[in-house]
Amino acid sequence: MAKTRRLISENLKNVDIVIELLDARIPRSSENPEIARLIGDKPSLTLFNKASLADSEATRRWQESYKSSGRQMLAVDCKTGENLSKIGTEVRRILSQKIKTWEEKGMIGRRVRAMIVGIPNVGKSSLVNRLSGQKKAKVENRPGVTLAKQWVTTNQGFDLLDMPGVLWPKFEDKITGENLAVTGAIKDTVVDTEELGMILAARLFELYPDLFCARYKLTPDEADGLDPYDLLCAVGKKRGFLVSGGDINTERTALMLLEEFRSAKIGRITLEVPDNA
Question: Is the pTM here over 0.70, yes or no?
Answer without folding.
Answer: yes
